[in-house]
Amino acid sequence: MDSVRGCRRGFVLIATAASLVVLVAVLGLAVDLGRVYIVKSEAQAFADAAAVTAARELNGKRSGLDAAEASVAASTNGWNFGTQRFPAANTVVEFSSTAFGPWERPPIANPSGYAFVRVTVTPSVPLAFLPVLGTGQFQPVGAQAVGGQVPQTFPAGGYMPFTPFALNPNDPTGNFGMTVGQEYAFLWPGNAAQNRSCAGNQVNWPQYNFSDNSSTAGSDRGYFELQSASSIRDAIEGEKQTSPLAVGDIINLTNGQKQSMQDALVARANLDTDRTNYAAGSSGIAPPYNGNNMRLVVMPINGGALTVPANKVLGFAAFLLPMSYPNSGNRTWCAIYMGSSVEGGGLSANPGGGSYVVRLVQ
Fold this sequence. Notes:
- This protein folds into 2 domains: 2-148, no CATH class; 183-360, no CATH class.
- It is an alpha+beta fold.
- The longest helix is centred in the first third of the chain and has 56 residues, at 2-57.
- α4 (229-238) runs parallel beside α5 (261-269).
- The N and C termini lie far apart (71 Å).
- The protein has helices at 2-57, 62-73, 205-208, 229-238, 261-269; strands spanning 91-96, 116-121, 124-126, 138-140, 143-151, 183-187, 197-198, 201-202, 221-224, 253-255, 296-302, 313-320, 333-339, 341-342, 355-360.
């Protein structure tokens, strides 16, 4: 009888020991896999944020690629509960002109049009328990995200209450017949006898005001949507518009000699960190603007009398405001055409004119 009990006790001990081994293995698997999933989540959060931040830096130039890579390297999103930075050796930054590749790493001969960035991060998670079962000491974890500048045709705000006219609505370059670096009018006097020229662009009066008559000859032209001076000032300084605007919409032109608007434009310009009074005339080259985007504004481009129906929105483009304007509404107000823009006022990597927003695309 005692021998039977002894055998039973021995079996229980063996079964308990075996169960403990299995239990410890399961617990170890749970702990290690839990860490792997946590790091996977942290790596994806890093890749998502880094891709969006990097895409904002793309401007069609090598400087934009460098700034994009620097922004990824400077990301403060870490892993292991935020206590460790993702090593540069485990992070790859690539660029493309499409959201689906092909992907390239610098140096890139011609960065124009490279508006997408892919960030891949592959940290290795140290394992605590699974190596006992014969696994490796580390488990690689991968995460990837693509951020890019995609067309934005319905900005809910942020565009100026002025509408420059296209010189060529069918321009194949997407620049509306304008040249990057040149000045173009966005407000002009209603009196045909007054000065209506900008550097490199003599305003064509029939195109810019095809409804001129004696009753409106004294009114300034170029305003749209808003009529009251206070509303226009709010739109200039505070980016407040009453409605979204899309490509293909019809511009509702307004007029009037709202001379205090020059003060609003100057007030906005003075909020910029770059106060260089850049000269126009560098054909095809945008000024080396390095400000906070208060002077780099978005305006809808108007087809005027050259489209059917007239006054159709052809697109959006970036213009650089000067630091001052004449003390009168009797002179044309001009700004330097900078090309396409990205949300917030920065320049886009996309050539030609247009308005773009930065977002995750993969």
